Structure formats: structure tokens, C-alpha cells
Amino acid sequence: MIAIVKLASLHDPRKSRWRVETSEEFGPWLARQLKLTGKTQAELAKELGLTRAAVSAWIAGRSTPRPTVMREIADALGTDVGTLHTRTTDTRAGLPVTWYHRPGYPDGGRDLGNAAAFAFDADVQILARETCQNSLDERLTENGRPVRVRYTLHELTGEHLEAFRDAILWNDLFPHYSAVSELAGNQKVGRVVDAGVRDMYERGRLVLLRVDDYNASGLIGDDYADGKFAAVVRRQLESLKSGPAAGGSYGLGKATLWATSALGLVLINSTLSVPHEGRTERRVIGRLELPWREVDGRTYAGPAWLGRPDPDTPGAEVARSWWADEEAVARLHLSRDSDEPGTSFLIVGAHDVASLEGDAHDQDGKPRDEEGPEDSRDIVRMHGRLVEALGRDFWAAMIGGGGRLPLLEVSVRALRNGEEVVAETKVDPSVEQPSRTRALRAHYEGTTVDRLTEAGQVAIRNVPLKLPLTGGARGTLGTHQAVLLVTEASGDKDTPKNQVHSLRGNRMTVKKATVPNLPLGTNPFQAVLLVGAAAGESAPFAKEAEQFLRAAEPPEHDRWGQTEELSLRWSPSAYRRISNLTTEVNSAVRELVARPKRSKGEGGEALRKALTVKSRPKAKVPSGPVVPVLDGLEATIGDQGEWLIAAEVSIPRGDEIVPMVPVAQMDVRSGGRPRLDWAELVAVDGCEVEGGTLRFPPGTRRAKFRGVTDVSSHPVRTTLTRLVLELRAGKGA
């Protein structure tokens, strides 16, 4: 049966003219209503003056009630006949929507917060990265269209705030928040929650941050059994992604939703791509994350859920999702723009503590007083930080060309009591990342070149990634050809320059690294590395490269390197394959951006031959081996925490020069200095590098080399240590 609900917007071509909703089959709908009202089939049959077999036949789908009986069924269920015919919502009779708080553990154990949320800071830019990645991973690929993601900041005050608090049953929650506030001085989560509640009452406002995606799978599956719904709403550290090129793998990303809420509260409305209980629209639930607490003499473990009591659980106490009507989702600020599948997450009490780090000056550019007011709930500033993060991390997913459609469309807006404060901003990759956008479009459209000779060109080069065998076996599975794109940097927003952005299947930027050891006078450039599925469906071993690199990403998904999963599935040394890829990429970039050498007849060479300079007679060279000495060292810390060193060596006169091995160590107060591995060791002038050893041609007096340490070999963070570099006599000395 089809029920026409309402006329949709005629100004959005992505929405159908008539929004239709498929009603649930009568049998499953009636069975659920009986549970909600606490009636049995026999009790309903008795009220209707019919046999139990007749009711059983309706529920089993073998027959349907006569029209004259429909009125009597509606009366028995406490609803109207229209609800029975449309069956697009549950009857309001029976068990009401309420909060269920998990009881304290019988053994007295206490959880003082969700540990997964501590993996992330209260930072809307981290939230944008994790949530947009999840939406990309759940994109419906069959129709070829992008997933559309919208971020809405909405500040509520006055009667709008009061109406929302009534909708979330604030009076039922307040005793729990009060109990947490009493313990606020003893633990972190309590202090955050206490500050969030105080801000709401003292400033009379509440900031909501809603994340909507469309053309995504939605939270499909049962409330409790395996499925996307249970993975997000019920469980921790579970990741059920829709495809092999997905970005997430730890199940931690969803924790950013609750980490961004100062009240620990997130409401959810999902439109399903696969029906559940015969329904797809307005599947609603709320989850609250609070620490252990005691309210009215009863202890509670931590989380709570807003939903309809599940009649199948003991005492019908546990809350499960419910099929809400349009009025209910509107009151909860969860209304969606269309019936496209996807999910809306509403973060209640959103705050952005990380934004305060850049808040050293006021709006007039004057330094702020150290004790001056700072606001982590400024929706205008949060809007700007969201746009910045989305453009920085997802620019590649928003680009199409050469018959290829974008994977993503994303926008950000800000409201106050329903009125627009900042107009909806569609994130434009050509504005946020102009050079890289040009590079990727040129690749899609087949207009790349082998060498940069003119402004605006994009050079392409294949770079090998040798994939290891799984299970620790020696050897190489195969060589995946990654795609490297290089173009000149342009525009004020094109910073920092001379960086490589690396990405794989879902085209989210994973790794950002500055290319070291560039020749002097190199023109500013930007580079893109496409690996795995991002390199193209026809690229050899693309699927295997996706699996390998996905295992090499930490929970932050901001680099590739040593991880526990990489060691377990491949080997403890598998990360060296990634280090070799980095070396190959940096070498290829340096070659592509190097200025062409002048011909012998040009400039200084011709002038040199035209001049005669009287030279001194050569001094007598002493016999025997000589040992090079470290004469100069410059060291800086790179974007990933690696040491970047540039060293100069002086060499005494002699007929044989001893090979030397550069050794990087961390300075410690006592005991042996931990030795660091080299991710890259490059000869610059007057020497060659062979297997980590510096070799010097006869007659060399000075030499230069550069190196990059391997971050995975650092026992502690680089910023907390000092570097010691030694030259030790190498093999053959």
C-alpha cells in the first residue's frame, strides 16, 4: 500500500515532486502494536468477539480484517482508523517514549566515562573528518550519485530552548546530570558535563550540531543483533563498513559525536536503504553517555537510551528505536529534507574546545587578556572551522572529470532559533585546494604531461608499492603502481606548499607530508599520491594495496606506518614497504620539480672557459686512510614528528677515505641512547649512500648528506627529546 504524505520542495531537482512512503504490511504492524499496548492475540480476539485463529491469520498475513472490523481494532488499540490504513507510524497507546538508564553493575564496578571518546578531542574539525569519512564509506554506489552531507549549527535560546528541552524529556534527565555534577571535581567527564549544563543555564543557550547524509545506507539492521544500527548505537569498537575501500576500521570514529557534545547526548534519525520491520523512514533513538552515578539511592552504569520500551525485555525497561511521526522528529530538530536513505546525527550541547587555541586575539586583532572571555560555542567560528577542515581533508572526493562523478557534496550552515546566521556554504575544492584540484582533474581528463615545462601543467609518474605476503612470509605478493601528480602551487590558500597529499579508495586525504631535500630555488609545488582504488580500477593489486594501507592507518587515519594490525596480519617489518614508497615518491617529486640544467654553452660555463685563473701547486697528499669528521648539522622536526637533518662532513687530505655510517640517537640522561632508524638517507654532494653507509670518492674534502628518521622507531615523541648524530666507521674500514 502507498500513502501520499506531502508535497516536497519543487526547487530541489534531487527531490521527487511527491514524497511517498511505503506502509508496513498489516500483520507485522499489528503484532508490534499488540506488544506496545501489552495485549495478547487472545485478548484482542475477545474484545472483537472473534476467534484467536482469526487474529493469528491477520498477523501471519493469511487474511486481512474486513473494513467493518477496522474501526473496532482501532478502538481496541487506542488509535484511529487512518493509522490502521496507512500504517506509517505506531499507535500512541501503550508504552510511551522514555529514557532507559543502564543499571549499575552487580559487582560494584564503575565506568567513569566512555574510553573510546578519549581517543579524540572536542574539536569540530576532527568531528568533520570522522563523520564525513563514515558517510563516504556508506555511500550507495548503485546509482553512481555522490553522498550529500550537510552540517547545521543551530543555537537555541528562550522559548526555542525550552521547547527542545521538553522534547528530550529534560526533567527526567536533570537528576542524572545533577548527580554527575556533584562528582565533577573527581573526574574529567563529570567536569565537562558540569560545564555544559552550567553554560546552558547561565547563558540561556544550547548549541546543536546536526550532521545529515543522503544517498547513504542508513542505520540498517536489528536493534540488538549484528548490523550497522547496533554497531553505532549499542556497541563500542565495532566497525561494519559497506566496502573494501572504506576509511574506518577501528569503530572509534562514532565516538567523536559524543566527544563533541558537552552533555554527552546524541539523537539519531535514520532513513533506511533496507526496510526493517517493513519500514524505512524516521527510525529514531537517542544515546546519552554519562559516567557512573547514583540517583535516588540507585546506581547507574553510564549510558542511557531514549526510545520506546521493548516489550520483549524483562519488565519492558530497555529502550529500543521507534518509528516516529513527523511532528516528533520536528520537535527533536531531526527533520530530514527528503526520503533519500541516510542518517541524521544531532549533537546536543556541541562545543569546540580546540578552537580556543587560535583565539589569542579578539575581533579587532588586539591580544586578548589572559583571563578574558573565550567561547568554545561560537557558531560562526565553528562554521568557518568546519568549512576549512572539510576542504582540507575531502577535496579529492568532491572532484569529478573525464566522465567520473564526484563521490561527495558537502555544505555547512549556521542558524539561531531557526533564522539564518551564516548562509549555507557549499565547500568548493577549487577554492580550498586550487592546485591539487587542477592536478586531479587533469588526471581524470587525461591532460597530464611527463615533465613540467609550462605554468599550469600537471606531471604524472607511476611509483611502485611492493606489497608483502601475509602471515610473515618472506617475499613480495606483487607491485602496485601508485599514481603521483605534481603541479605548481597557486593562490594564497594553497598552503603549506611543497607537500604531498596521499589518499586511497574513498579519496579522503590520509597523509600530508612535506618533501625533504629539495634543490635550492625549487619553485613552489603541490603533489597528490593516489594509492589503491584511488589509482584506478585497472591498477594492479589495487584491492590488496587498499587492505594493506588500511591496516597501516592508526585510529586518527592521518598517516601510514607501523600498527599492531599490520604486524599481526603481515609482519613487524611490513611498514618498511611504506617507508620505501615514501622514498620513491620523494625522489620522483624532486626529479619532476628540478629545474633543467643549462647547456654547456650557456651562462657561467661559457664565462668560466673565457677566464684564466692561476692555481696554486697541489700539496703533497699524505698516505694512509683518513677519517671524515662531522662539521655541521641542522635538524628540524617534520609534520609527522620525524627528525629532518642536513649534515656537512669535512675530510682530511689522504689517499684513502674511510666509509662512515650516520647513527641517529635520542639523548637521554642515563643509560644507552636509543638508536633511531632512517626512513630516508640521501647523498647531497661529495658522497654516495650504499646500504646506509656513506662512501666518499678519492680526493673529496667536503661532503653533504640529508636524512629523515623513521617515526615508528621513536620510543617517545620527538618534541620531548633531543637528537644526537654520530659518524661511525663503516664496513671496510
Could you describe the 3D structure shown?
This protein is α+β, with helices and mostly antiparallel strands. The chain contains 19 helices and 30 strands. Strands 3, 4, 5, 6, 7, 8, 9, 10, 11, 12, 13 and 14 form a 12-stranded mixed β-sheet that branches. The protein has a 5-stranded mixed β-sheet with strand order 15-16-19-17-18, sandwiched between helices. It has a 4-stranded antiparallel β-sheet with strand order 21-22-29-26. The longest helix is centred in the last third of the chain and has 19 residues, at 575-593. The radius of gyration is 32 Å and the shape is elongated.
Please name the defining characteristics of this protein.
26% helix; twelve-stranded mixed β-sheet; alpha+beta; disordered N terminus
Write the layout of secondary structure elements.
Layout: E1 2-7, E2 18-22, H1 26-37, H2 41-48, H3 52-60, H4 67-77, H5 81-86, E3 98-103, H6 124-137, E4 147-157, H7 158-167, H8 170-182, H9 188-203, E5 205-214, H10 228-233, H11 255-259, E6 261-271, E7 283-289, E8 293-295, E9 298-309, E10 319-320, E11 322-323, H12 326-331, E12 342-350, H13 379-394, E13 408-416, E14 419-426, H14 429-432, H15 434-445, E15 458-468, E16 476-488, E17 499-503, E18 509-514, E19 525-530, H16 542-551, H17 564-569, H18 575-593, H19 603-610, E20 625-626, E21 629-637, E22 643-650, E23 656-657, E24 660-666, E25 675-676, E26 678-685, E27 688-690, E28 693-695, E29 702-709, E30 723-729
Parallel strand pairs: 4-13, 17-19, 20-23
Antiparallel strand pairs: 1-2, 3-9, 4-5, 5-12, 6-7, 6-12, 7-9, 7-11, 8-9, 9-10, 13-14, 15-16, 16-19, 17-18, 21-22, 22-29, 24-25, 24-30, 26-29, 27-28
